[in-house]
Amino acid sequence: MNNIYYKKGYKYQLKKDYQIQLINISCEDIETEYISLSKDGILLIRKGYAWDGPSGPALDTKSFMRGSLIHDALYQLIRLEKLSKEYRLIADLELKRICIEDGMNKIFAKIVYIYVRIFAEPFIDPSIEHEIEIAP
Fold this sequence. Notes:
Layout: E1 4-7, E2 12-13, E3 18-21, E4 30-31, E5 35-37, E6 42-45, E7 50-51, H1 62-79, H2 87-101, H3 106-119, E8 132-135
Antiparallel strand pairs: 1-8, 2-7, 3-6, 4-5, 5-6
């Protein structure tokens, strides 16, 4: 019998490459299987990338999906130690900016920002990268 190898914790999978110009990013070029970040702040998330959408008590609304995708990708680059922990603030600010851009109420976006600033720091820890599961 052949085993399958998978990771838990994901709800969504990107079906087309997505690219965005980020603000206040200055780093060396980064390349992973699913994420590229250029030194001039162009983030490319490739088709097949999986993420869990908005976390906590937040609802998975259209105004939150793109922000959650970008935020999760940036946090993953921090967990993988491709970006330093100082980029967490930039990731959190980008989440707020993109959610507002996508139609989220500014007050709710500020609450989302405060929430991630208070509670999301553990999610940049390299030790929490999803482990590979095997079945059966």
